[in-house]
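HUMAN: You are asked to prepare a plain-text protein record giving the amino acid sequence and the backbone structure tokens, both parts labelled.

ASSISTANT:
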Amino acid sequence: MEDSQGMIHGEKKGHEVIRLERESVIPILKPRLVMTLANLIEHSTDRAEFLKLCKRVEYTIRAWYLLQFEDLMQLYSLFDPVHGAQKLEQQKLTLEEIDVLEQNFLTYLFQVMEKSNFKIVSDDEIEVALSGQYLLNLPITVDESKLDKKLLKKYFESHHHDNLPDFSDKYVIFRRGIGIDRTNDYFIMEKMDMLIARFWAYLLRLTRLEKLLSRRPKKHSKKDPKKDDDINYEADGEDLSVERIRLENMQLSFRKLLGKTLIQEPTFDRIIVIYRRAGTKSKTERGIFVKHFKNIPMADMEIVLPEKKNPGLTPMDWVKFLVSAIVGLVAVVSSLEMPSADWWVIIAVLSTVIGYCAKTYFTFQQNMAQYQNLITQSMYDKQLDSGKGTLLHLCDDVIQQEVKEVILSFFILMEQGKATRQDLDHWCEELIKEEFGEECNFDVDDAVDKLEKLGIVTRDTIGRYQCVGLKRANEIIGTTTEELVLKARQGNTTS
């Protein structure tokens, strides 16, 4: 399966893999990037001019975004779930004016999310992500009655987005980055559950009740390909492939059952969830929640959902209880009516039925404990921030990415001379790979646009770009306010 953003779930050399399109994020800290590039410059005077240019580029780009980010933060202060209601009341705004302001806030926010290379999770991506189980083995659903359905619906009606998920009128999940989560443990209860489940499936096949009792697939479930024990984390062309290793696909052996087992799941490196709670007849909710998570396993993505219902035994579990009891009762009665009742058969049937019922109940209790632990962990370990803190992080993230793109593309032009956009794109990606051992999809269009806006590149008649000299580039940008402040501070210090 594949969506427009390039997520594919399939089998490769016996491994269950998820492949995603590489994102336009330079995965290198700015200080390391700047110093590495500076050290590649031979002459010390040029190196000093390059370092000065890097600072001026950052100061200028920060100034460009300052007003936009200031507007974003001012608007959010009105829709902060904690204090926003008081500020809205002080403003004495009409309902129509508030509606306009909240739509303006969402417009600014979604622009920042796009600049930060976050993508809205689509239905197809969720289907791929939740096609397996990792640490969370309970059906988690959202209590939609507790979520507002007007705010986001109104936004998307006036701002078209492709492949919006079905729940986009209630909440939006953004994702960025891909990683790996590994857990190495004995998984005693999980393995017992797997053995009982396989034995139960065998009994169902024998009694031809498999179709009746087969687990109804989840909304997002698919039949999963098998895999081996090897860890596979590789790049395939322009895409990034990450393997899943799960208990339910484990080949049975005495050593594996008694020893530690490694399971592995791809993660979304960053997830941001946006939603509003539903109001009541007496109170209209205006607070907008913005929550930021890290390293969320794809198969356990339900832990970031807003307003989750407490999970319980599924209807299918209750059906299994009932049918198991009926099957056991019929088997026992049939055995008793026989001329010579075989008590061993009766005991075996009763043990199987009771064992399966106990397995279903205790598995649920274990999963509930695991669920509570995961929710607690997501709040304390995996939730990075929320509200204003998340917005500040996003704003700084945008600036850092823009600065790195400009610095890297200018350095390539300085070293290589003239280049087309395609050449510049290729050379920047090659430099990142050679000097830092990282791979990314360099956003050359954004980088060139910024270089032209700064006025430090020229373009010839056939579309090739060429940068001005380092000294001339610093003169074009000019002395920044930050440099004047630093100079004044140094003057005060020396005096």
